[in-house]
Amino acid sequence: MLKNNVLAFCVCLFSFVAVAQSPSTKDALQQIEQNNATLKAFSSFLESRKLSQKASNNLPDPQAGAYYLPFGNHASGDYSEFQITQSFEFPTVYSSRGNLIEMQEAQSAMEYQLKRQEVLLPAVNLLNELIFLAKKEKVEQVRVLQSKKLFDQTNELFELEQAGILELNKAKIAWIQEQFKLDILDADRKKIMLQIQNLNGGNELQFAQNDYSSSLTIDDSESLWLEKMQVDPELKVLLEQEKVAQQRIKLSKSKSLPNLTAGYNYQGVSGSNYSGIYGGVSIPLWSSRNTVKAAEANYDYQKSFTQVQTDEMHTAFLGEYEVYQAMLNKYQEYQSTLQSLDSEALLLQAFELGELSYMQYYLELQFYQQAIDSMLEMEKQLNQTKAELLKHQL
Predict the structure, then answer these.
(1) What domains lie within the chain, and their CATH numbers?
(2) Residues of the signal sequence (predicted)?
(3) For residues 90 and 262, what is the distance between their CA atoms, to the nearest angstrom?
C-alpha cells in the first residue's frame, strides 16, 4: 500500500508544471495594491506634487494702491490717487507651462507604476515562496507517513529479533526528523504570511494556492524586450523625463518674452479727476540670460542618460534571460531523469523484500529525496527569475 502511495506521489510531483501567476495570485496582488501603505502614501505625494505644479501656472495676485496727499505747501486741493493692476507673463508662457505640467503628470503616472512594481514584485516572490512551501509540505507529509510505516515495520522485525536496537532507534529518529521538518515548514509559512500581511496594509490575506499555474516557457528575448520597452514603467519614466526636458526648452524660450501689466488708474486734485487704463511692460534684458542654453544642455544630458540607462537595462535583461533559459534546460533535464528512475519505489520494494538493510535503504533514500528537494528549489528559483524578467506585466 505504501509503495503505491509513494509511486502515486512521485507521478503527481513530476507532473507539476511550474508557473508564475494564477487567478488566485492575481487576486492577492490586487488586494495588496489596494491596501499597501507605501502605495497609498506615494499616491498622496504625487497628488500633492500635481497640485503644486498646477499652482505654478497661476496668475500673480492683482495689486491695488492708493495715495492721499493732504500735507505740504500747495494752493490747490489735496491730491489723491488710486490704482489697481494685474501683472502676467507673456500668454505663450502659460500655454508652454501648461503643456509641461501635463507631461509632468504623465511622468508621475509612470513613477506610480514603477513604485507599484517595486511593491508587487516582492509580493509575487513571497506568494511563490508560499506555493513552494505548500509543495514541500505535501512532500513532507508523504515522507512522515512513509517514515512512520518504516518505523512500524522495523519495530515488528525487532520484536521478531530480525533487526537490532540500533536500526530501530535510527528508524524512530528518522520519523521524528520528518515530523520536525513539517514543523519548520509551518513556521516558515507563518513568517511569510506576516510579511505579506504587512504588504497588505496590515490586513490578513487568505492565500490557499498550492501550485504554480502557468508554463515556465517564455517568449524569445527579442519579443519580450520589445514588449518591455512599450510598457515597462522603468523605461517609460526615462522617456517622460526626456519629454519634460524638451518642453522646458520651449518654456525657457517663452519666458524670454516680456512680462505685461494692465490696470486702472484714478487721480484727483482740486475737484478735478483723471482716470484711465494703465499698461506696463518689462524688458527681459537680464533675467532670461543663459536659461535657454541651460535647458538645452539639460535636454542633451537627459537624452544621453536615457540611452545609457536603456542600453544597461537591455544588457542586464539579456543576461537574466540567458541565465533563465540555462536554468530551465537544466531543470527539465533533471525532472525527466528523476521521473524515469522511479527510485524511491524501487528502494522501498528492495527493503520490503529484505534485499536492503534499514541503514542501506535510508542512505539511498536520502540521496533521492535530496534530489527531489533540489528540483523543487530549482522550480521556485525559476519562478522567481521569471517574475523578475516579466515584472513589466505586473
Answers:
(1) 2-393 (1.20.1600.10)
(2) 1-20
(3) 12
